[in-house]
Amino acid sequence: MSKKFSGVCLLLFFGIHISINQQLAKAQTQTPTPQTICPAQLKTTIDAVTNRPLFNRVRWGILIQNLGSNQTLYSQDAEKYFTPASNAKLLTTAAALRQLGENYRFRTSIYRGSNNFLYVVGRGDPSLTDTQLTILAKQLKQKGINQIQQLVADDRYIRGDLVPSSWQWEDLYSDYGAPVGSFILNQNTFNFNLLPQTLGKAALISWTDANEARQWRVINQSVTTAQNQQTSVNVTRELSGNVLRIQGQLAANSQPYLVTLPVVDPNYYFLRRFRSALAAEKITLGKTSVGINASTQQEIAAVESPPLSQLLIETNQNSNNLYAEALLRALASKKPVLPNQTTADAALEVLQTTLTQMGVKSTGYALVDGSGLSRKDLISPEALVQILQAMGKSPQASVFRASLPVAGVSGTLKNRFQNTPAAGIVQAKTGTLTGVISLSGYINPPKYGPLVFSMIVNQTEQPASIVRQAMDEIVVSLAQLQRCQ
Known about the structure:
single chain; D-tyrosyl-trna(Tyr) Deacylase, Chain: A; Beta-lactamase; 11 helices; 20 strands; globular; disordered N terminus
């Protein structure tokens, strides 16, 4: 992904480069001449792709096996470590499904304390939105509550940093790097639109949340340019603090330009939004704070997330980092969290124990987060195939596979493999970081048995679209595999 850095005076700013012309490169494999490939031809076919001169400096890791039998059809550096990008989500979601079960739900509760304060307890539900806040407010209204003296956000369920320390700093100011804690609302992001004005004037800021607008001091240095000119906007934010700087240009005839940024403090963002939901139900709210209540509590309102089976779909099909991190932390409920331990670290221990029980060698991976956004994550293609094999043979196989993008149909594979033999018969997880492309999953060739595969490319200077196209060629070849005499 493209990332930009900007520095302003003595303040450190990290930029989110936003361009109306910027789009993710999508590899479209051309429709090949119908053909079939025998297993004996597979090595020659794949080597012809990976050995192209433009990949001379690239590290390829590939493992292809028959599903169930574990028979290896092709292997290249499969046991070596690679930066996996979002393929790490395969380990996280598999462990979550095995440990928590497909019907697991996150629960957000409101309790009445002995001091008559109300305490809202967040448990890291990544799917919570303003809609659920409205439901909670209505439940309180039905209990006859018209006034709340003090509302306390109890955030002790998830301990530790809101974002992994190994994430790159610019990731922290992008919507894909939103903070994860006990309270997650609207995926812990806020947004506003930039609208063009008359020529030479600054773009107009249109906030979707007036309360959020009051949290920021905006320095608007943008300008409206002539019609049909290129639009290029750069929004930067202080490393800490409340300053937003908007620079760049917006064409006079351009559409409203949506900017999405992560919230700074999830607890108080939740409380601000909940105050609005309560006001809509004519419930008066006095003070708000963050704290805990050790006294006996009575639950008076609660909402639950969709079942885990649905949360996995958002995690894997749309490669949602925040969902993956929330699912990882949910694993910590399976063991006591030590006093000096973060919830994420405790969860990683549960993840490793779970994967070992499933037959994944502990020497095949080293994870520091649940999403794969950290460049300290290391996984071998062998470990990814091991988890795919284990899940493919498990009672939860259908739920796990349903969470994966389908070639040419859904998620991050919707625009890949269209009009090829692979369309509709490949379920696989994508992954992308600068210099990293990965793809791992299942294939059901119509003239051969089901396959599992993992492909990771590291240290590439080639555009992501070029690497994806090469991977897609290999997958299309696998889709045409047939048994030969």
